[in-house]
Amino acid sequence: MMICRQLIFLVIILLNTSVASLADQRNLQVSFSFIPTLDCITAGFRLYDDNENKICEVVDPAATVMTCPDVEITGSEAVFTLTSFCDDGRESCHSAPFTIAVSSEEVLSALIQADPVSGAPPLAVTLDAGSSTGAITNYHWEFGDGEAPVDDIMVTHQFVFAGVYTVTLTVTENTGAVSTVQQIITVTENSSENHPPIAVISASTSVGNNPLAVIFDGTGSSDVDNNLLHYTWDFGDGSRDSSNTPLVTHTYVVAGTYRATLTVSDGIDQTTSRAIPVIVSGSNPEEIGPTATFSTNHQSKTIPVQVNFDGSASTSITDNGTIIQYDWNFGDGSTGTGQSSSHVFVMSGNYTVSLKVTDSAGSTDVATAKIIVTEKNSTGGIMPLSAIYSLLLLNNNKE
Question: What percent of the chain is modeled with pLDDT above 70?
């Protein structure tokens, strides 16, 4: 025996064709509500066609939406009914029939959603064409301010100067048909207001193995009030550049993910920052720092002995290989600075000369060498030149 219930249908939605090769197969979605009239535990709902063939069912007593895939629909409309069924298998009477009209194609129509549509410059406006309908293959935006057009479904465009601009969207579908719509954007100037500058950052590369040298470019930055811009760079690895230049080069030594940030200031009271990610791959050395090394040139085998010292072969892989300080200790109480140095030994003896190098990151390294100097006309016999001026390089000591 059937249990009849009153079913109240709210919304009928016909979705897109799910099987492209069968034009009469569609996804069908039905939204509904019902009022039970008999005491029964509802188990779910069933959808039938006009020949009382079950199309699909949903086993959910709280359901208010039923989606049936690949429903065969012939012609321009179809008739359906809905029932509910109990947990003991009994089923209600069919609802009143409802008819769905089938549209063979969605009409091509360009639609713009703009936010905001007015404001003071620089005004960033988000333009969305996602509500446009049809088999669209291309979205083409023209902004009306002289800037280059953009092809995308959603764009954010910045209007720099005051004025009234007409934004045009043209959509093209797979048949070549087009639809066009326009949107007015009003940019109003407040002459008493100092506007923030516009920061634009780009990079020559943003992914690579270490050491990765990256050229950062902020030359596209601007200020609507025509104030002189000041540039500060933060490379995200602890290094900064405050040289006030829009074009800088930085080398990332350690593998990792970094966020390089450009901050531009108008020199009054407004600043703007923009960032770009940099991903550095590769293996990291166990210790990063400089390596001290030096060579000598002996000019005499007896005292006074003038020895030239050259530390230019010292290297550093920190901060693009920059050593900023050379400190010499000649072992006789005298010291010196500079990449190269010269010292005169006036007394015989064995001297340990050391070179300490410091790079721009504050890391240091020390190299040492032993210099042997004898007196002139030594009674101990004539010592070969190679013995008098022997250079014994010791192991480097990291600091």
Answer: 82
What's the mean pLDDT in 349-372? 88
Instruction: Read off the amino acid at residue 362.
Output: G
How far is the C-alpha of 335 from the C-alpha of 342, rounded, in Å? 10
**Which domain does 367 fall in, by range?**
290-398
CB count within 10 Å of CB 184 equals: 12
Which uninterrupted H or E stretch holds 388? helix 385-388
Please report the sign of the dihedral spanned by the C-alpha atoms of residue 39, residue 43, residue 48, residue 52. Answer: negative
Cross-strand partners of 367: 355
Q: How many structural domains does the chain have?
A: 4
In a domain, 145, yes or no: yes
Q: Provide DSSP, 240-289.
A: EE-S--SEEEEEE-S-EEEEEEEEEE-SSS-EEEEEEEEEEESPPPSS-S
Q: Where residue 286 falls among pLDDT bands split at 50, 70, 90? A: low
Q: Which of 228, 251, 281 is the last residue of a domain?
A: 281
Residue 178's nearest CA partner among 111, 259, 110 is 110
d(CA 94, CA 46): 9
Are both 119 and 97 inside the same structural domain? no
In a domain, 320, yes or no: yes
Is residue 341 within 8 A of residue 353, CB to CB? The reply is no
The pTM (predicted TM-score) of the whole model is 0.31
